[in-house]
Amino acid sequence: MTARMLRPEHDPIAPAPAPAVTITVEGAALSGVTGQSIAGVMLAAGHLAWRTTAAGRRPRGVFCGIGVCFDCLLTVNGVRDVRACQRVARDGDVVEFQDETLPGSLATPDGAGAPATRSHSPASHAEEGEGA
């Protein structure tokens, strides 16, 4: 048996390019490929966090990537608590960040409550010392 080199266009096992999908995240269109998770599309676009915790107001995004930790929850097409790492992106999906709040005195140890924030950009968390 002799080794031979195949030109890429003649390779019988070369995968065809995957069709593109477009999802809307907080009003902005993001592109991905068919079969990619919502988390994958968002990470590729530079989104590292898309949810805040109720206690402590800490940013959350993908942690485990296998659907166990629930850190990547978001709202997809109006349905809350969807795990971004498990949900395949479908063309036309509308994705919204989740911002959790606790009632009254449960929000902070001093009982004053924490202000709701929706800043999930990588730059804002880097400034706070929480980003990559």
Total number of strands? 8
Mean pLDDT: 80
CATH fourth-tier homologous superfamily of the domain at 19-101: 2Fe-2S iron-sulphur cluster binding domain, sarcosine oxidase, alpha subunit, N-terminal domain
What does the radius of gyration come to?
Answer: 20 Å
How much of the residues is beta strand, in percent? Answer: 15-25%
- Calculate the terminal CA-CA distance, rounded to whole Å: 50 Å
CATH architecture title of the domain at 19-101 = Roll
Q: Please name the CATH topology of the domain at 19-101.
A: Ubiquitin-like (UB roll)
SSE class: mainly beta
| Residue share in helix | under 10%
Major sheet: order of its strands?
Answer: 2-1-7-5-6
Tell me the name of the CATH class of the domain at 19-101. Alpha Beta
The sequence of SSEs as H and E is EEHEEEEEEH
Topology:
Blueprint: E1 20-25, E2 28-33, H1 38-44, E3 51-52, E4 59-60, E5 73-76, E6 79-83, E7 94-96, E8 98-99, H2 122-127
Parallel strand pairs: 1-7, 3-8
Antiparallel strand pairs: 1-2, 3-4, 5-6, 5-7
Please give a handful of descriptors for the protein shown:
132 residues, mainly beta, five-stranded mixed β-sheet, 2 helices, 8 strands, 10% helix
Structure, described:
The structure is a single chain. The chain is mainly beta and 132 residues long. The protein has a domain at 19-101: Roll (Ubiquitin-like (UB roll)), CATH 3.10.20.440. 10% of the residues lie in helices and 23% in strands. The protein is built from 2 helices and 8 strands, in the order ββαββββββα. It has helices spanning 38-44, 122-127, and strands at 20-25, 28-33, 51-52, 59-60, 73-76, 79-83, 94-96, 98-99. The strands form 2 sheets. A 5-stranded mixed beta sheet has the order 2-1-7-5-6, with helices on one face. A 3-stranded mixed beta sheet has the order 4-3-8, with no helix packed on it. It starts with 19 loop residues before the first strand and ends in a 5-residue tail after the last helix. Residues 110-119 and 122-132 have low confidence and may be disordered.
